[in-house]
Amino acid sequence: MKNVVLFLILSLLTTIAFGQQKVIPAQDPTAIGNTFFKALLDEDDKVLGTIVSDDLDVISFDGQSIDGDLFVQNVAGNIFIVETGVVMDAVTRQYNNDAAVMTGTWQAKGSIDGQGFDTTLAFSVVSAKQAGVWKIVNVQFTPVSQ
């Protein structure tokens, strides 16, 4: 009986310990940029929350600035929905081993607060190392004229 109780307690503690671990994407600015777009497509606010900085600033399609917390909440609350999204022509330039800019185009379809979009956007994703971990600090989307 003691062994069963001990086993249950250890199982519970193990579950709690592993359940609290954060998902940390590959520590590379290209991988973190790709993880960002995949999280948008998957509507995965948990992953987004782990890869963006506390002071993230997103410049949306219309030039409006959105802070990181609101952006992640919009993904979690199905206000910003991406149905399809394909990153093309992505290039990452790294500076001094602690800053990087990923640029390219993103062909995306979805909706923002019920308003549909189906467009190609030029993007820049700026990443910086914070406490030795890559975080996204700025994202800008600009519609491409077609």
Automatic annotation (TrEMBL):
Keywords: Signal. Residues 31-136 form the DUF4440 domain. InterPro entries: DUF4440, NTF2-like_dom_sf. It comes from the Bacteria. Residues 1-19 form the signal peptide. Coiled coil: none annotated. This is DUF4440 domain-containing protein.
